[in-house]
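Changelog-adjacent note: as of this version, every example in the card shows the full chain rather than a window. The one below runs 234 residues end to end.
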Amino acid sequence: MSTVDEVPMNQSRRTPVRPGWPELGVAVLAAAILYGVGATIAYLLPAGSPVSPGQANFLVSGLAPLGAFAVAMLIRIRDVRPFGMRRVHPGWLLAAIAIGLACFALSWPVSAIFDPFFPGSESVQEGYRDAARAGVLSLVVTIVLGGVLTPFGEEVLFRGVFASFLLRWGTWIGVIVSAAVFAVAHGVNSVMPVAFVVGLGTGLVLRFSGSIWPAVVIHVVYNSVGLLYHGIGY
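Full-length structure tokens:
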């Protein structure tokens, strides 16, 4: 018995349905618009708002890619399974927890190697760290937004749409190029190399498990552990 749901088939060719150029193009356009609108709203939040800048940015980082994914899915395929939303063996989820922790551990040596190439970008993540350090309630809200919502939104877009589209040209094109797109989407700064490492891990588990859920778990673990790490004062 297969560990994942069956992928819908193109009845004329009996080949698996896969996101194509229409889905990719619509996703890119929708993401650009939604990220732009969301970033503008977050920037215009008044001082003293109950939502901190870091939390607002996490909210945008989760909802914008979710919206882009929804538009891409609805224009033609109208089924989430070709985008990786399929059942998976629990063993993959357990492995994903370990991979997420490994990615977090790797973030230190990766940062040590590449941070000198991005001088002046040390403060890129400061808003997120401030939100995690602003008390227990703020930490909980920040983990919900940045440790759960953002990873889910980013994975359904960058792995569900981008990687699933690119995998038609083979594993390494699908994994490496989608990881590179994911990294660049975080900006040309000190976060980019670490995002690339996370993108490699999530892309590989999508490829070999056939499901997006292990990728989501990796990303959730990585982000949540990082926020907890900063929230307790490191």
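Structural remarks: Residues 11 and 173 are 27 Å apart (CA to CA).
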